[in-house]
């Protein structure tokens, strides 16, 4: 494995290896070993053309915990504002010795294009509405930690599937690992290609909730949305928002997940977001171990 561009590129053994490596690295962290020397002398570039809180900082922390040098590049304040292209920017960073490039970009396919231009490994940190592989991996890692397995798990992915890069990555990864995924959304927030995806589709959240072991809520991405796609906030929340009453209809062991950032009061009520059944902060913590595992396997592993 040289790049991580899509969870669809991972077979079951490769995906399991990433999750198992993350478990081992989490145990190392638990034993208070502050840093591993694994990536000493390697350089990781965080190349972010879109805003990020969780992904950028956890990739930075993960690379530093493996002793890599880290360059944080944000398009804002760079020569991108003078018209420099993604390719020229990437080649410039490569000339400075980047071994790995973590890229987030608003264009679907940007990470794949970058992988053709640079010599080092490319890690897709979110490309447009296409994929977000490390988010799907850290979510699967969290499910496996909490529920002990992925095989046979019934996972509902709920909300703005149309604009979500997490949804596609999660469907591809979770089905590879033996889970059964149902996408739940209003018809206007589903891509036309959804019936070719390896999952079930439902418009009825209340029918799906009692049968779900995990509910992954997606952020409604207002910034990517044309008005015609969007039901009113009140209508969306009434039909697809997870509140305390709906949480009560889920099995007692079932988890509520969200990749963040959450829009409280819309896709998730404050009561649910703050409940012990909601794993949002645990997902963030797991993101560091998972991204350490990916960097280790791509840049330093055997
Ligand atoms: N989940 C996620 O990708 O969050 P950020 O946009 O903050 O990185």
From TrEMBL:
- GO molecular function terms noted in the UniProt entry: amino acid binding; aspartate carbamoyltransferase activity
The pathway it acts in is: Pyrimidine metabolism; UMP biosynthesis via de novo pathway; (S)-dihydroorotate from bicarbonate: step 2/3
Which residues of the sequence carry a binding annotation for L-aspartate? 82, 165, 219
Claim: Ribonucleoprotein is one of the keywords in the record: no
One Pfam family of this chain: OTCace_N
A single Gene Ontology CC term: cytosol
Q: Does the keyword Transferase apply?
A: yes
Q: What class does this enzyme belong to in the EC scheme?
A: transferase
Please give the name of this protein: Aspartate carbamoyltransferase
User: Could you say which residues bind carbamoyl phosphate here?
Assistant: 54-55, 104, 132, 135, 260-261
Q: Where is the Aspartate/ornithine carbamoyltransferase Asp/Orn-binding domain?
A: 151-298
Where does this protein come from, organism-wise? Nocardiopsis kunsanensis
Reaction it catalyzes: carbamoyl phosphate + L-aspartate = N-carbamoyl-L-aspartate + phosphate + H(+)
Kindly list the biological process annotations in GO that this record carries: 'de novo' pyrimidine nucleobase biosynthetic process; 'de novo' UMP biosynthetic process; amino acid metabolic process
The record's InterPro entries line, in alphabetical order, gives: Asp/Orn_carbamoyltranf_P-bd, Asp/Orn_carbamoylTrfase, Asp/Orn_carbamoylTrfase_sf, Asp_carbamoyltransf, Asp_carbamoyltransf_Asp/Orn-bd
Domain Aspartate/ornithine carbamoyltransferase carbamoyl-P binding per the UniProt entry, residue ranges = 2-144
Its biological function?
Answer: Catalyzes the condensation of carbamoyl phosphate and aspartate to form carbamoyl aspartate and inorganic phosphate, the committed step in the de novo pyrimidine nucleotide biosynthesis pathway.
Q: How does it assemble?
A: Heterododecamer (2C3:3R2) of six catalytic PyrB chains organized as two trimers (C3), and six regulatory PyrI chains organized as three dimers (R2).
Q: What does the similarity note say?
A: Belongs to the aspartate/ornithine carbamoyltransferase superfamily. ATCase family.
Q: Which UniProt keywords apply?
A: Pyrimidine biosynthesis, Transferase
Instruction: From the UniProt annotation, give the residues forming the signal peptide.
Output: none
Enumerate the NCBIfam families for this protein: asp_carb_tr, PRK00856.1
EC number(s) stated in the UniProt entry for this protein: 2.1.3.2
């Amino acid at each position: 494995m040289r790049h991580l561009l899509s969870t669809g590129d991972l077979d079951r053994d490769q995906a399991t290896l990433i999750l198992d490596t993350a478990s081992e690295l989490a145990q190392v962290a638990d034993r208070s070993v502050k840093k591993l020397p694994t990536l000493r002398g390697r350089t990781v570039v965080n190349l972010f053309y879109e805003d990020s809180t969780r992904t950028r900082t956890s990739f930075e922390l993960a690379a530093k915990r493996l002793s890599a040098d880290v360059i944080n590049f944000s398009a804002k304040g760079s020569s991108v504002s003078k018209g420099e292209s993604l390719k020229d920017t990437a080649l410039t960073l490569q000339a400075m010795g980047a071994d790995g490039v973590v890229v987030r970009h608003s264009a679907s396919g940007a990470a794949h294009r970058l992988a053709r231009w640079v010599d080092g490994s490319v890690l897709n940190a979110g490309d447009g509405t296409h994929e977000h592989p490390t988010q799907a991996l850290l979510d699967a890692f969290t499910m496996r930690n909490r529920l002990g397995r992925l095989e046979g798990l019934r996972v509902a992915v709920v909300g703005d599937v149309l604009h979500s890069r997490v949804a596609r990555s999660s469907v591809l990864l979770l089905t590879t690992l033996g889970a059964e995924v149902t996408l739940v959304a209003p018809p206007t927030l589903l891509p036309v290609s959804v019936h070719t995806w390896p999952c079930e589709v439902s418009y009825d959240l209340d029918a799906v909730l009692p049968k779900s072991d995990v509910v992954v809520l997606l952020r409604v991405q207002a910034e990517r949305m044309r008005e015609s796609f969007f039901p009113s906030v009140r209508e969306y929340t009434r039909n697809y928002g997870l509140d305390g009453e709906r949480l009560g209809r889920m099995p007692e062991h079932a988890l509520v997940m969200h990749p963040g950032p959450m829009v409280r009061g819309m896709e998730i009520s404050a009561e649910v977001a703050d409940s012990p059944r909601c794993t949002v902060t645990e997902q963030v913590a797991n993101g560091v171990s998972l991204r350490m595992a990916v960097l280790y396997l791509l840049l330093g592993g055997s």
